[in-house]
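re: ur question from earlier - yeah i can do the single chain one, its not a big deal. heres the input i used so u can compare w yours
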Amino acid sequence: MNTIKAITTTLMCGMFVLTSCEKNNSRNDIDDAVYLAFEREFPDATDVTWTTNGNYAIASFDWNGSRNGNSKDYTAWFEKTTAEFMMHEYDIPFSSLPQTVYNAFNESVYSKSPWKYENEVDVIIRKADKLTLYIIEAEKEEKNIDTEVDLYYSEEGVLVKEVFDAYKNPDYTELLPSQPTNEIYSLIEGKYPGAKIIEIDNEDGYIEVEFIHKNTKHEAIFTSKNKLLYTTTDYNKNLSILPQTIIDYISNNYASYYIEDIEFYETESKGNFYSIEIESNHDDDIELFFTEDGEILNSKPDFRK
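and the output i got, formated as tokens:
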């Protein structure tokens, strides 16, 4: 998979050479401090080429970190202004996945027909917080339409991201360490001590912070002024967290459906509620909403206002 993404990146750089993505065939355009930092981290690396993305210098190379066996394809990110080593990526066979990740994937819809997974898995390791992610690529073809998805799993087997059509953005730079403002960080750390932040996005005027806490995926949404609007907790298919009244309601009214996903919203203005996605054997999806006490809601509460 890494080879495919490297080729795609090269093509994109060729098309958009006047933008932030630049291909370098040597170290000439890379600061000496960055190159020396690279040599310290990856001594005796071979076939090194460089690209840049924003404030990051990105090296692609072959390296045998264990000093035995065959070299592997690596990618490493360095901050250009500080020459600090930030993150690296390499491939492993699907058969070498940690058992936690393998089990989580095997229980997902993506492990079943018509989905097929790639035999190579990308491993991302961030240096600052030692976050490790395993990216499994899956694809399916239905009615002459190809669909591809990259599935990001933590070491604990938590599915933290699903990225469709990932070939359009083959660079993992968005996973580089992100530090929220002190106010946002304090709010998250106060409510979720020890949370490990995955990614921070600015979307439609809102700040979205994805993080893992106690082996569960969470997302916190803030206004541009750092005011917390709501958090969501993704419980996947864990029925044990649901009030019995919700389980009974779904069983009595949607007998031919099964629960596909459970999210719990904690909002600042409209209280807490569950969002439950149910699906039939005919791939019919329905999203249901319940109060924290299990009362059915007519629609999703409008809590962003």
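The domain at 182-297 is CATH 3.10.450.360 (Nuclear Transport Factor 2; Chain: A,). not sure if urs matches, ping me
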